[in-house]
Write a structure and sequence with these properties.
Structural class: alpha+beta
CATH topology: Immunoglobulin-like
Order of helices and strands: HHEEEEEEEEE
CATH architecture: Sandwich
Distance between the termini: 40 Å
Strand content: 35-45%
Number of domains: 1
């Protein structure tokens, strides 16, 4: 019984450490999240297109599409960040050298009206970005509100 309790304590401790590290490492600002992705390098506006409706009726399911005006082999990844959701890092898309085009679509949740930023990492180490302001009329539920 002692060995089992010891193993449970170790498991709980590791889970707590992993959660604490993740919480401590998560940037709490939009600029901080983008800087973590770019390694502090600046992202030049242009070359990336973030398509999302400027006015969203329901923040629970917001369709977005991201595309990059570069050859598919030159784009390594694209990340989308938000300004006011609990988690700043919304989604990341990774494109391999055999990708036929650099375009991806998904649906996200938005807690409230806010700014979205898409940042593309190119193979030469540079970054391109696009920013869109989105107005949400019916906000999605946020952590801690019971929904």
């Amino acid at each position: 019984m002692t060995g089992r309790r010891h193993a449970l304590r170790i498991g709980a401790g590791l889970a707590a450490v992993a959660f604490t590290r993740r919480a401590a490492a998560a940037p709490d600002t939009l600029a901080g999240a983008i800087a973590a992705f770019t390694g502090g390098a600046p992202a030049t506006a242009g070359g990336v297109r973030l398509e999302v409706a400027a006015l969203v009726d329901n923040g629970n399911t917001v369709p977005i599409t991201v595309s990059v005006d570069e050859a598919p082999g030159r784009v390594e990844s694209v990340a989308v960040f938000n300004e006011r959701n609990p988690e700043r890092d919304v989604v990341r898309f990774v494109f391999g050298p055999r990708a036929s085009r650099v375009r991806a679509s998904t649906r996200i949740r938005l807690a409230t009206s806010q700014k979205l930023v898409a940042v593309a990492r190119l193979s030469d180490g540079t970054f391109r970005s696009d920013t869109v302001d989105v107005v949400v009329t019916l906000a999605a539920c946020i952590e801690g509100d019971g929904g």
